[in-house]
Design a protein that fits this description.
Elements: H1 3-20, H2 31-34, H3 36-54, H4 61-80, E1 98-100, H5 112-116, E2 119-125, E3 142-144, E4 147-148, H6 149-164, E5 170-174, H7 179-186, E6 196-200, E7 204-205, E8 207-208, E9 227-228, H8 235-241, H9 244-250, E10 255-260, H10 270-277, E11 288-294, E12 304-308, E13 311-315, H11 325-329, E14 336-345, H12 346-354, E15 363-368, E16 374-379, E17 393-396, H13 408-415, E18 419-422, E19 425-428, E20 439-442, H14 449-455, E21 465-471, E22 473-476, E23 481-489, E24 495-498, E25 503-510
Parallel strand pairs: 1-17, 2-5, 2-10, 5-6, 11-17, 20-21, 21-23, 22-24, 23-25
Antiparallel strand pairs: 3-4, 7-9, 8-16, 10-14, 11-14, 12-13, 15-16, 18-19
Helix pairs in contact: 1-3, 3-4, 9-12
The chain binds 2'deoxy-thymidine-5'-diphospho-alpha-D-glucose (DAU).
Residues 124-127, 173, 175, 201, 229-232, 260-262, 302-303, 316, 337-340, 381, 383, 404 line the site of 2'deoxy-thymidine-5'-diphospho-alpha-D-glucose.
């Protein structure tokens, strides 16, 4: 048999594999799915994916086949489902869907060690620091006292393990973008007594917006723009495929606590752990819990929990029809949002993954590549799994459980005296007389971490700050205090130096102010 013939045979075998391992939902008589164009598109994609798999290096075929089969299923869900929700079909949340944190049953001290022995902590570490102008994984950005997200997370788990004399493992879900750097970094923790295990999430092909076909032509292409990590919703499948899920279940672990590595408030909470592990009032324990918190003007982009088609569902902004985006952002209509602190039963994850029951909404993320091509990447969000689990619910947690760092303005708050730090945990300073955090907006000159750091000779005292807006070419000296509402605006071409020791309280500063040494 010639090389071409044997390759063609391999390609058709891979196509057959995709069809055999496809999710069974296609048998459903959905009108949309019946459309022959969609079936043809899927058929063409299967051919392309089979060609990609056939191009995999020896020894890597099986992994590539499993990964492309996962992508094939995601793509077929994308073809079948609507990408936006029917706004008018949103139902009121049922009674008890979101429980107040304060009403969780109390934890008995004597059970803590046993409860922790059933827990696995997972951090989503697939993201890059690019949006903050940094190279490499986001988790290597220094947050406080030169300690990175990863350092602080390690300290938190180490402290937990020491306090209760347990060995809660830390699992990092990396992406192909962050895996190498993270593996190198982990070496520096060789002496830290925390069991850290990492695995890599899937690498899926970006597809051309016009043709809907992968832009990659072979698995080994050096073109890194041809691939993407398919969102944190990929966790369940990737975790199961890595073998770790079975391993932890064998070790007697029962639950995982999953959160964004950039959320410094996502520490292990014993009240929630107790709630998920122990049924109360004759109720079955929930298989899945989403921590939500009251929405503020700073969180308008986060996902929210809604009731839809008689199930709890995570609604992300990308799924909201254009005309309703303002309504979605309103803090009076949607009062809570998803912190992405999620608790899931490991046994239930195994069940839904092996039965192919994980039906998460597909989020279409359009991208424009440097070479001028428009592509889309199909993603899912981890919280979207809520509807596939039994007895799922939300818990409305205190704001302190959500301390994300998405922008340098978040970094400014965490670096300041507003927060105290203790063994990797950041808590709002007791010196602040009210519990809300200030609303901070820094202009685009502060977007990159390097530029932001250069513009502050020292981090100002923010204990009494309510609101700060800074725009234009503004520089801060040492020992500055900002109180109440402070607005500093340097017009285009002007520069403002806030002199060392300045106290600004309820002030608007504008124009051109330079104080130079002589
Ligand atoms: C896209 C992607 C992200 N990640 C990691 C990076 C971050 O640590 C974490 C969150 O990713 P982000 O893309 O920043 O997601 P984000 O916009 O914050 O949205 C999530 O977190 C929000 C709270 O910050 C929620 O309100 C949203 O419902 C939830 O989807 O997951 C992965 O590990 N793999 C991925 O593929």
């Amino acid at each position: 048999m010639s090389y071409t013939q044997s390759r063609l045979r391999r390609v058709s075998e891979h196509v057959r594999y995709f069809r055999e391992t496809s999710e069974n939902q296609e048998t459903k008589s959905s009108e949309e799915w019946k459309s022959s164009t969609k079936r043809e598109t899927l058929g063409a994609l299967e051919q392309e994916l089979a060609r990609l798999v056939a191009s995999a290096k020896e020894g890597e075929t099986e992994g590539a086949r499993r990964e492309m089969s996962g992508f094939r299923n995601l793509f077929s869900r994308f073809l079948r489902a609507k990408t936006h929700i029917e706004w008018k079909a949103i139902q009121p949340l049922p009674e008890g869907a979101i429980r107040p944190y304060k009403q969780l049953p109390p934890v008995s001290e004597s059970h803590i060690t046993q409860m922790l022995s059933k827990l696995v902590v997972v951090k989503l570490n697939g993201g890059l620091g690019t949006s903050m102008g940094c190279k490499g994984p986001k988790s290597v950005i220094a947050v406080r006292n030169d300690l990175t997200f990863l350092d602080l997370t390690m300290q938190q788990i180490q402290q937990l393990n020491r306090t209760y004399n347990v060995d809660v493992p830390l699992v990092l879900m990396n992406s192909f973008n962050t895996d190498d750097d993270t593996q190198k970094l982990l070496k520096k923790y060789a002496n830290v007594k925390v069991s850290v295990i990492s695995f890599c999430q899937s690498r899926y092909p970006r597809i051309n917006k016009e043709t809907l076909m992968p832009i990659a032509k072979d698995m080994g292409t050096a073109d890194m723009e041809a691939w993407y990590p398919p969102g944190h919703g990929n966790f369940y499948e990737a975790f199961a495929n890595s073998g770790l899920l079975d391993k932890f279940l064998e070790q007697g672990k029962e639950y995982c606590f999953l959160s964004n590595i950039d959320n410094m408030g996502a520490t292990v909470d014993l009240n929630i752990l107790n709630f998920v592990l122990n049924s109360s009032g004759g109720q079955e324990p929930p298989e899945f819990v989403m921590e939500v918190t009251d929405k503020t003007r700073a969180d308008v982009k986060g996902g929210t929990l809604i009731q839809y088609e008689d199930k709890l569902m995570l609604l992300e902004i990308a799924q909201v029809p254009k005309d309703y985006v303002d309504e979605f952002k309103s803090i009076s209509k949607f009062r809570i949002f998803n912190t992405n602190n999620l608790w899931a039963s490991l046994g239930a994850i195994r069940r839904v993954v092996s039965n192919n029951e994980l039906d998460m909404e597909v989020i279409v993320n359009p991208k424009h590549l440097d070479r001028g091509m428009d592509v889309i990447q199909l993603e899912t969000a981890a919280g979207a799994a809520i509807k596939n689990f039994k007895n799922s619910c939300g818990i409305n947690v205190p704001r302190s459980r959500f301390l994300p760092v998405k922008k340098t303005s978040d970094l400014l708050l965490l670096m300041s005296n507003l927060y105290d730090i203790d063994n990797g945990s950041l808590t709002l300073s007791s010196e602040r007389s009210f519990p809300t955090t200030p609303l901070v907006k820094l202009g685009s000159s502060f977007d990159k971490v390097k530029d932001y750091l250069a513009r502050f000779q020292g981090i100002p005292d923010l204990i009494e700050l309510d609101h700060l807006t800074v725009s234009g070419d503004v520089w801060f000296g040492r020992d500055v205090s900002l109180k109440g509402t402070v607005i500093i605006i340097a017009n285009h071409g002007d520069r403002i130096d806030v002199a060392p020791g300045t106290i600004l309280e309820n002030k608007i500063v504008s124009g051109n102010l330079r104080i130079l040494d002589h």
